[in-house]
## 1
Amino acid sequence: MSETAEIKLDGQTYNLPVVTGSEGEKAIDIKGLRGETGYITLDSGYKNTGATESAITFLDGEKGILRYGGYPIEQLAEHSTFLEVAYLLIKGELPTKEQFKDFNNKITRHTLIHEDMKQFYEAYPRKAHPMAVLASMLCTLSTFYPESQDADRDIDSVDLTITRLIAKISTIAAWSYKNSVGHPVVYPQNKFNYIENFMNMMFSMPTEEYEINPVIADALDKLLILHADHEQNCSASTVRLVGSSKANLYSSISAGVIALWGPLHGGANQAVIEMLDKVRKDGGSIEKWVEKAKDKNDPFKLMGFGHRVYKNFDPRAKIIKKACDDVLENLGIQDPILDLAKKLEEVALRDDYFIERKLYPNVDFYSGIIYKAIGIPTDMFTVMFAMGRLPGWIAQWQEMINRKEPIGRPRQIYTGPTVRDYTPINNR
Ligand code: SDX
């Protein structure tokens, strides 16, 4: 007899099915609730509501566990590569040597963007935020591949769109940076691997060849792995919702980029550095800013702290904090911002306000310090997050399509005026 949840409404008893996941998580399946009882559920921000069943990523907020396809993030960050993790998320299994070679070659061969897209860069204001550029350029890709707009696309054309997205996002990102500093764009080169190509497009100059630093390449690869997926977060849910209307994959991903841009989500990595800078310029009084973060009347929040799911620690933050030390030491950089971040973490984690609310550093708290150390400008930090998260968004979109999930359309409880008659303006 399968497990059920009993609810009593208006003197009637209903039994709703209970769903149990492969890690023992439980949910009450309410798909029949409204039909049987006339009631819906209400859960602002979906804090307690599951949107789907998914086999891509598992995270346990209490135990600080994060696994892609069952593989612990600590092992993948240590031993895998970003493109291999992208394959795992999208295909559900780690690739064989042959499969990876084919996947990697296809991506290498699709890194160029149409020359006509260069005109769009010239039309943006120099200081256009690269997240605005990224979102529009990714959506614009669909205009260069109109066949991708066909809702009932076949698997081969979906695979080609996936390849194009992963290949071209790094070129689009690097070119938005070059355009913002008035430097000529650098074309991708097939001799480089994915990360090296991005670094070369970002930092190479016509006047001098950029020398790839393996320490930086390794740190970037690790950061992209750590950002690759995070189950039903705000931007992944956006990609799923937009994709559920059968909008094309380019547009669904573009919507995910825009959702990620928010400072409460991926935009936090830029906001952390801006916050630490503000604290430093203000004389570095940690206690003053921690008090501000606790003050309900003060809109200031400790950016990079807190998480909807992790109520213990964000395993990614632990790995990134260690990578921070390694990269800065290796590059011989003494960044006062890192010391400030560590002090802020120490003070906050001793403070009852943060302890009671289980607020710990999240993935965004230390990542910006590494990006800054390797020369990536602050307004490009969330673009880096988007580059890392792209395979996760693709995997979430693909799972929603393959499971033939219905168009997402939540209900509501109406609280506005009840029916009333219109009166012409002269009578009001
Ligand atoms: C990401 O979902 C994901 O998986 C996201 C992500 C991913 O990989 O996709 O992990 C990436 O988005 C990480 C989060 C980055 N955002 C930030 O660092 C911004 C700062 N953090 C907060 O805005 C907040 O913690 C959230 C948005 C991350 C989570 O918000 P919740 O779950 O809605 O929690 P809440 O706002 O209801 O906070 C609970 C309490 C409140 O106080 P009380 O009303 O109970 O008194 O904690 C307080 C909040 O005021 N609080 C903070 C705080 N975060 C929460 N107080 C001060 N500083 C903070 N950072």
## 2
Amino acid sequence: MQFAVIGNPIHHSLSPILHNSAFKSLGVVGFYSRYLLENPENFSSLKNLHLTGANITVPFKEIAFKSCNEVFGIAQEIGAVNTLVFEKEKILGYNTDALGFYQCIESLNPKNTLIIGAGGSAKALACILKAKGISTTILNRSQSRLESFIALEFHTATFENFTPKECFDLIINTTPAGLTNDSLPLDSTLLVPLLDSTKFAFDLVYGRETPFLTLAKSLNIPHSDGKQMLINQAILAFEIFMESQKIPINKTILRQSMQTAL
Ligand code: DHK
């Protein structure tokens, strides 16, 4: 069985380490690699790779959604998938980012959250938070990207018109600010008071401390990067892959293996 994570760029992805470690620990014969897809128009050509399943990352989660014959669970509302199963005639789509994220913050029991950014990841987080009954506000630079959140009845604001009337239990940065540069996702005059009054700061970026997390740290706010979310979504995706092939697995071994792989 061959699997891959597909995106552009893709060289940074840690998914092969996670999944190949699970194959080894479970004694399942399978191999997971990275695949750089340069042109989104070639998305349908992925069928020719004869993969059993795949994970999809930036910027193809929405186009992957559209290429599916069937989409399951919360992915239907999100409009983006990160996990595909290739059947003979069909592509099945799932979103494990949403639950993978929620598992990270569940124990914090937040009543309200602020999401910075309005891309595909923000949508996944917003939808699962809503499904769990947690009030969520989306804050973004431009109005245009907020429209799909407004259609789903989220509270939204642009950086320009945001006047916070409440403290947020949890603030999440979903923008790539700090991934390839040293910028904050939001001007510090707005961000500092927001972070200073929150209970927890979460950044989806993993592998480096972003200025957003450095700021949270300097304000003594508990915080976390995106590493645990990456592990959680991979565990959930691996379970889907194995279920699709009717291969029973020991979930404790799977969890231990991925948890210690990075
Ligand atoms: C990144 C994501 O956002 C996930 O949705 C994919 C991946 C895997 C990565 O390998 O970086 O499933």
